[in-house]
Design brief:
- It contains ten helices and six strands.
- Strands 3-2-1-4-5-6 form a six-stranded parallel beta sheet, with helices on both faces.
- Helix content is 49%, strand content 12%.
- With 231 residues, it is of the alpha/beta class.
- Helix 3 runs antiparallel to helix 4 (67-81) and helix 4 crosses helix 5.
- It has helices at residues 17-31, 34-38, 42-61, 67-81, 87-100, 111-120, 133-142, 155-158, 165-175, 189-198, and strands spanning 5-8, 124-129, 151-154, 182-186, 202-206, 219-221.
- The longest helix has 20 residues, at 42-61.
Length: 231
Amino acid sequence: MKYQHIFFDLDHTLWDFAHNAKQTLAQLYAEYMLEKKTGIGFDKFYQGYAYHNERLWEAYRHHQISRDELQWKRMWLALQEINYPDESLAIQMGEYFLKILPRQSQLIPGSKEILDYLKSKDYHLHILTNGFPEIQELKLQSAGIDRYFDHVITSAEAGCLKPDLQFFLYALKHTQADPNESLMIGDDMEVDIEGARQAGMDQVYFNPTGHLETSTATYTIKHLQELKQIL
């Protein structure tokens, strides 16, 4: 086999972040009675959250904000979208969100099937994630896929965030993987694909929506089952 070590991103690649986050936020919205207080439906709040969360994560990756600021500010900005800018509530919601979210278990379609397939082929499987360590471990356990992975390497452990070259070099050293025998699978062209390329690894760009984007990855797939054609 050309590849021995398979590195997966977690959120949006195996664990369905969009679905799980929406379910969690809907629960928070109901428990804090925000529709009753504002007269605005959940969808408006969720759209605001999704927009601001993406941009705040970008700022976090570039060391422009802290983890704590990311956690509460995405809630605060989403509350602003429904004309309810309560900072104290935003802090509460940010903390509660991280308690509930990782207990959600929805996976991207085909995740368990492809992990079973790869394990049967004796590949070494690993997770590379910018997510917070305690949160990511609980996500894997809740979804029942923690047993598949030899290593779960987080940005906290590596001391830097993807796509920093040092993150990938740390992962290769920690797993004793040769970059020429390693494959990175992820949904983000900058964070997963370009980061892995810098480290000399081949890459699979997971693009399930088929949105138009020039891919320079070694491979591009729309469904995880397509990995069987590569591995």
